[in-house]
Amino acid sequence: MVVHAKFSFKEMVEIANSCDYSYDGLFFYAVKTTGIFCRPSCKSKSPNKENITFFQTAEDAKRAGFRPCKRCQPDVMNFDPKMDLINDTKAYIQGHYTENLTLKKIAQNIGISPYYLGRLFKKHTSRTPRSYLENIRVHKAVHLLKNTDLPISDICYEVGFQNASSFYHAFQKQTQYTPQQYRKDFSYDL
């Protein structure tokens, strides 16, 4: 099994089960019982976690003997230089979500203007780089709330929020819960 350096096995299972297209291109998952591999956004039935293995590329999954899903077609990648910029942006944000990121800083690292990046990202993902970043931070916070006993204030800064107010606002906007309510209702016995 190849585990992506940016995500734990448990996080990748959660991402695959949520069918979130924003993680497409960052990793692929394969189901041992069917011999099929998919994109994280595939709408097929969620497999049992003991039957999943992960790969960084579609080629890695093919070399391991898995065939591409006919539904999400993970091996079909139409070359589009703009999508390369989008995927580079997603990967940069994934790798630096704990930092104080601005659109200007992201754009400098991708090599294009902030205005063009903002427009391009919104057109291809239906969200801004800022909302994509917040989504990642909240997803990481959810993972920590469920699986650790870290204080909520520590989680806020651990996932990259600069203050508790923005953390609480983004968390409640995305989950409909405060972090305390979420931990109380959804955390596993630690």
UniProtKB/TrEMBL annotation:
Record-level GO BP terms: DNA repair; methylation
Gene3D superfamilies assigned to the protein according to its UniProt record, in alphabetical order: DNA Methylphosphotriester Repair Domain (3.40.10.10), Homeodomain-like (1.10.10.60)
Secreted as UniProt keyword: no
GO MF: DNA-binding transcription factor activity; methyltransferase activity; sequence-specific DNA binding; zinc ion binding
SMART domains linked to this entry: HTH_ARAC
Superkingdom per UniProt: Bacteria
Cofactor(s) in the UniProt record: Zn(2+)
Domain HTH araC/xylS-type: 87-185
Keyword Metal-binding belongs to the record: yes
Key words of the record: Activator, DNA damage, DNA repair, DNA-binding, Metal-binding, Methyltransferase, Transcription, Transcription regulation, Transferase, Zinc
Membrane-spanning residues: none
InterPro entries: Ada-like_dom_sf, Ada_DNA_repair_Zn-bd, Homeodomain-like_sf, HTH_AraC, HTH_AraC-typ_CS, Me-P-triester_DNA_alkyl-Trfase, Tscrpt_reg_AraC-type_HTH
PANTHER family listed in its UniProt record: ARAC-FAMILY TRANSCRIPTIONAL REGULATOR, HTH-TYPE TRANSCRIPTIONAL REGULATOR EXSA
Name of this protein: Helix-turn-helix domain-containing protein
Annotated source species: Salicibibacter kimchii
